[in-house]
Amino acid sequence: MIPEWLHYLAILALAAGFVVAAWIAWDEWRNPQKMWIMNVVWPVTALFGTGFTLWGYLRYGRLATHAHAQSAGKDAAKKQTPFPVMVAKGASHCGSGCTLGDLIAEWLAFLAPGIAVWFGWRSLFGEKIFAIWILDFIFAFSIGVAFQYFTIKPMRELGVWHGLVQAVKADTLSLTAWQIGMYGFMAIAQFVLFRHLLGTRLEVPTPEFWFMMQLAMIAGFLTSYPVNWWLLKHGIKERM
Q1: Taking a C-beta distance cutoff of 8 angstroms, is the pair 238, 156 a contact?
Q2: How many domains does the chain have?
Q3: Mean pLDDT over all residues of the chain?
Q4: Is the pLDDT of residue 147 over 90?
Q5: How confident is the model over 184-194, as pLDDT tens digits?
Q6: 109-118: Cβ within 8 A, 24+ apart
Q7: HEC profile of 126-138
Q8: DSSP states of 144-204
Q9: Is 191 a domain residue?
Q10: Domain assignment of residue 238, yes or no
């Protein structure tokens, strides 16, 4: 049985994520980012990063706006952003694509359960969650590469094909590392915390499930951070 305090904590955490995401989106509407895809990345990241994302946006995200670039110079944001923060932005850029992909995949599998069968539920996997993770990865990878494409292509002035190749190259390791962290935490939450300790299942249409997903995304950020450090150091991903 799920404790009442956990239920209300989950609702509070989700509400905080939505409020911060909405505020950042409103602020970006007033003062858009120079790189348009970041207008999506910041609010999506806020859904799970909440207060930390808000601090990062106010301290460093506003340095990358059109207005700041016009007043301080084209490359001012890069000069004023420490490398560890650039790494965090790179990880969040990847993670926002993962977040959207996981949101779509989880709700799709819930509304159309037969989809899980297509990905091995009851044939390869006894647990439905493993089949859905395959679907999660497909959506996360597709959206993550698209996000990376809209970053690398304009910054490097590449054609469509070369931009796509570089996007796949830049995002594959980062996204995989993120999903490993996310899957690992969700496995602990599902099989240990909820099934073993609380004697219940995590279900998609519940606040507890999405609260655990918030924490899982933070775990994904932590596992992808060192990978993004390496990718940025070697120029495989762009510094932002």
Answers
A1: yes
A2: 1
A3: 89
A4: no
A5: 999 999 999 99
A6: 109/135, 109/204, 110/204, 110/205
A7: CCHHHHHHHHHHH
A8: HHHHHHHHHHHHHT--HHHHHHHHHHHHHHHHHHHHHHHHHHHHIIIIIIIIIIISS---T
A9: yes
A10: no
Q: What digits encode the pLDDT tens for the residues 115-137?
A: 989 988 888 888 888 999 999 99
Q: What is the mean pLDDT of residues 141-170?
A: 79
> Cα(171)–Cα(169) distance, rounded to whole angstroms?
6
Q: Return d(Cα 57, Cα 31) in angstroms, integer.
A: 12
Q: Which residues, at least 6 apart from 171, have a Cβ–Cβ distance to it below 8 Å?
A: 94, 97, 141, 144, 145, 147, 148, 237
**Domain span at residue 218?**
4-233
45 is a domain residue: yes
Residue 91 in tokens: 């990880």
**pTM, two decimal places:** 0.90
> Which amino acid would we find at residue 142?
S
Judge whether 239 lies within some domain. no
Residue 13 contacts by C-beta under 8 Å, 6 or more apart in sequence? 50, 211, 214
Contacts of range 73-78, beta carbons closer than 8 Å, 24 or more positions apart: 77/34, 77/240, 78/239, 78/240
